Amino acid sequence: MNRWTAAVVLLLVPCVVNAQPLDVSKFVGEDWYGLYLNGQKSGFLMNAVTQDKDGSIVVVEDAQFKMLMQNVPQDLRTFAKHTYTADGSLIRFEQTVQDSRGTSAFHGVVEAGGLKLTSTVAGATKVDMLPLPKESLRDAFKQSMLANPNAKVGDKIAFSYFEAVMGAEDEGQSEIVAEETRVLEGVPTKVFKIKTHMTFTNLDTISYVTDNGVLLEDIIAGMITMRLEPKEVAKDVNYVNDVLVANAAYVDKPIADPRGRKSLRLEIKGPLTSAHLFNDERQFLAQKGDSFDFVGRAIAMDGFTPATLPITDDSVIEWTKPTRFVQSDDPKIVEKAREIVGDEKNSMKAAEKLCTWVDQNVRTSFSARLTNALEVLNSLEGDCTEHSVLFVALARAAGLPAREVAGLIYMDGSKPGFYFHEWAKVWVGKWIDIDPTWNQPLADVTHIKLGEGDIFQQAQLMPIIGKIQVVVLDDEKSS
Length: 479
What we know:
Layout: E1 4-5, E2 9-10, E3 14-15, E4 29-37, E5 40-51, E6 57-69, E7 72-84, E8 90-99, E9 102-111, E10 114-121, E11 124-131, H1 137-140, H2 142-146, E12 156-163, E13 168-184, E14 187-198, E15 203-210, E16 215-220, E17 224-228, H3 231-234, H4 243-246, E18 249-250, E19 263-269, E20 283-288, E21 291-297, H5 331-341, H6 347-361, E22 363-364, H7 373-379, E23 381-382, H8 384-397, E24 402-411, E25 417-427, E26 431-434, E27 448-452, E28 469-474
Helix pairs in contact: 5-8, 6-8, 7-8
């Protein structure tokens, strides 16, 4: 099997090409894996396959992460259970994500030629009737079927997958790109290197699978490694990996006046791609040789006339719609947005009111969570992710097009540097960056935008987390 689990759980469902017949009996039992984030042990995962008396087959994946965020211990658990008929047809599945604030649950049942998906997020339950997914038991074991004694370099699997958290299907491809021989338990064994590319998140996974279908290792986006280990070794995890500190890009000296300066020029090194190069009125980011130039500029709104609420521009109206985790149509969020904005029709002033309210009312605490706006409104606490997702939901509820943004921000302290951060952008007649965590209606010049969109779209940041270096080229004080 090839499944990987993090805050975002992607469920691969391939259509197999050039694969051998599936013998489920050889996979019955448990396999244990250690989970590593950028080389540091951070959790463990258990795969289990059982076959019931009626012939139905149950596949379970249970992953637990133990890590630190600003020295605060964090626990995150993801659980998936899929049940198939004896001939491999999907019967049902359940998937849960459990974090410090509770559990999000997703249950799917095949019925009447379709899929009934029941999602419970922040205590609110939603039922969707969706087309029948393509998933089957053969799909769940796609890499084990691809890596067989007759396999060769160049063999491929085109696949689609249904992701319960996202509530949709996607597609991708796995390909054997190399083979090697490893000595496993004293026996020379052929091992295939398989590259999998997922279209929606644009992530690549490198897997090492033996010629009899045993998954030895997954490396997801060069960041998360899942490695086959004895049970007692896999479960031996301590809270030692501080993901915020370990993944920061430190600088050799503090930046003067980081929040008030008018411009900032940096040299950035790391595995950035065209998907990370955002250029707009506030920032310029472009490749220059083997590094990247960044120029941040403070934006002034002098002479600009903000749009009037509600926004009806067809080009941005999609960013006023609710999503599974930005529940801008929930009565509680609609009521709160109305309370904050009142009768204000000036879109910029409305955005400022929402930004200030989120900053003043959401208590800062660091947590590893599957974030959603309604849960944040109920708890009124969280880190930059929670501040931003609540702001976006309130903005949309007020008729303001808004979306999430992610990247880096400079922070002073004993270790000055650029830390991964999330903020928002809102359309007030043009798109502007707003940071509700820092109460900045116009985000300062140290914000380096590298991704935007929801948690799945931001997955494109995974290959660069912990791999960026920053050199300050221009440190003039603001005038």
